[in-house]
Amino acid sequence: MTGTRKGTSITRRRAIAVTGGTAAAGGLVIAGYQYASADEATATATGTATETASASASATSGSGTCVLMSSVTEGPYYLDGALVRKDITEGKDGIPLTLRITVQDTTESCAPVAGAAVEIWHCDAWGYYSGYTTANPGGSAPAESEDGSTADDKTYLRGYQVANADGVVTFKTIVPGWYTPRTCHIHVKVHTGGEKEDGTYEGGKVNYTGQLFFADGIAEQIFELEPYSQHSGTWTKLDDDMVYDGGGASSGLLTLEPVHKKDPSKGYKGSVTLGVDPDTENTGAGSGGGGGGGTPPSGAPSGAAPSDAPSASASSSASSS
């Protein structure tokens, strides 16, 4: 089922149909979720909609066996040359999200993978991706250029962080908006064996390609807020998404906790644990791949980077914080 939101009608300025890609069979990785605060027994998002993440989807089961999930496509909006930095917002407006990701080694009893490079990318509050700002997000939304921020159209909402001794990285970002025909999501890759160079991450291999998802109730209440509410139309719920397979935490559903329980505009803390085999390469499927998610609609971006896409030369603005 889809959720329909009503807002001010704004003339559509974009003409390219978009998609976030499809699910595809890949190497197995582990997904488990930990709470944003270690002293809390549950992680509950409350407000007009209350969503509680299942505590049963932990990084390890009672027997010590790690929970597994399959990699999925990177989608058509991936770009090389993302910057190593903690804050990827570049001034983009939206509900704040602090995302904590832990990387574990499946071959070493879920030991932390220190030095793993975690890369994320996602759309802005109106459904636009940096590097592809002329792609129509569906429904009716202002042009990406009307957001009033000083964000670089080639780099916003993309970045790497290198895991500490506990295998942990933390990103400062915003909750993504939506675009046709995808649900609210964040893309993620885990790299090992490379190194930071000129402000980005070079070499090594990709051990995991996946996507992280938001509960419908949380997404719905966020999409009622500014600036999300300026994008009107029908957004896709989890049950109808072409990538999310309904498996809950083991399928990428984030554990989320509101910063202020009575005011979702204050933001959220999100967390996830990803287990990888550092010796195995897994780049996910291409944007046109098959698998459980289906095939992207015709007219979707091919996945090739624009001619002026960012590269290591863009690293002068990088922050390693």
Can you offer a commentary on this structure?
Strands 2, 5, 6, 7, 10, 14 and 15 form a 7-stranded mixed β-sheet that branches. The chain has a 4-stranded antiparallel β-sheet with strand order 9-8-11-12, with no helix packed on it. A two-stranded antiparallel ribbon has the order 1-13. Helix content is 2%, strand content 28%. With 321 residues, it is mostly beta strands. It is built from 1 helix and 15 strands; from the N terminus they run E-E-E-E-E-E-E-E-E-E-E-E-H-E-E-E. The protein is globular and about 45 Å long. A hairpin with a 5-residue loop joins strand 6 and strand 7.
Summary of the model, kept short:
By secondary structure, this protein is mostly beta strands. The chain has one helix and 15 strands. Strands 2, 5, 6, 7, 10, 14 and 15 form a seven-stranded mixed sheet that branches. It has a four-stranded antiparallel sheet with strand order 9-8-11-12, with no helix packed on it. A two-stranded antiparallel ribbon has the order 1-13.
Please state the structural category: mainly beta
Counting H and I runs of at least 4 residues, what is the number of helices?
A: 1
Gross morphology: globular
**Series of secondary-structure elements, N-terminal to C-terminal:** EEEEEEEEEEEEHEEE
User: Which bin fits the share of residues in helices?
Assistant: under 10%
Percentage of residues in DSSP E strands: 25-35%
Largest sheet: 7 strands, mixed
